[in-house]
Amino acid sequence: MIAALTLCALAACGPATTPTGVNDPYETANRRTHEFNRGLDRALVRPAAEGYSLAVPDPVQDGVSNFADNLDLPGDVLNNLLQLRLGDAVKNSFRLAVNSTFGLGGLLDPATEMGLAHEETDFGETLHVWGAPEGAYVELPLAGPSTERDAFGLVTDIALNPTRWLVPSGDRKWVTGANIGGALSARSRYGDLIDSILYESADSYAQARVLYLQNRRFELGGRAADPYAALSPDQEDSYADPDYDPIADPNYDPFAQ
After folding, report:
1. Which of 55, 110, 111, 248 could form a disulfide with 95 if both were Cys (CB 3.0 to 4.6 A apart)?
2. What is the sign, positive or negative, of the torsion defined by CA atoms of 195, 183, 93, 153?
3. pLDDT digits (tens, 9 = 90+) for 15-37
4. Which residues pair with 140 in a beta bridge?
5. How far apart are CA 253 and CA 96, in angstroms?
6. Phi then psi for 97, rounded to 5 degrees?
C-alpha cells in the first residue's frame, strides 16, 4: 500500500507518452508462447466456446457475462480512484450498486439502460496515467498479447481486486465459473475475427501484435484504433482487394505517420 500511495503521487507527472512502432526484443520467446496459445485455442478454447454457445441459451450466457462484468467493477472503481478520475469512480460505483440490487446480483444490467455505462479500466492504464512507459511487447501464456506495463498491471489487478476480499472463500468457485463462462461467450461472439487472426493471416503473431498495440494505444488516448488507418494511398488500393494481406506486404508499415 505504501508503494501504491507513492506511485499515486506520480500522477502529477502526467500520462506516459504514446509510443510508435514495435518494441519486441523478446520476439523469439513471444512467438513460442504465441504458438502455445494458438494450439491451446485450437485444441481446447475454441471447441469449448462453440459447445458453450450451443448448449447454453443466449439469455443465460448474457446473465453469466453480466455477472462477471459486475465482479470487475470494484477493481475498476479502485483504479478510477488511483487515476484520480473521480467521475468514473462515482459512475462505476452507482453501476455496481444498481446492478447488484435491482439486477439480481449482477445477472441483469439495468444500469446500462439508466445511462450508467461501464467505464472499464485496469492497473495497466493506471500505470500509464502515472507516467510509466509501455515497455516491450510480450505475449503471455493464456492471456495473450500484452506489454511489460500491462503484464505487471494484470498481475496487480488479480492480486488487489477487492472482489477477492469481499467474496467468501467457499463462494469463489462461482466467481471462477462466471469468469470462464464470460470468456467462452466472448470467444464465441468474436469467433470469426479471432479465427481470421489466428488461422487465416499470413503471420498470425505479427497480426495479433499490430492489432493489440494499436487498439491498446487508442484506449489510452493514442492514435486511431484502426490498424490499417495509416496505410498509404497505394496500400489502401491494395487493401481494397479482398485477397490482399497487409501483414505479408513487405512495404506495409502499420505504424507509419
Report:
1. 111
2. negative
3. 888 888 999 999 999 999 999 99
4. 144
5. 42
6. -65, -45
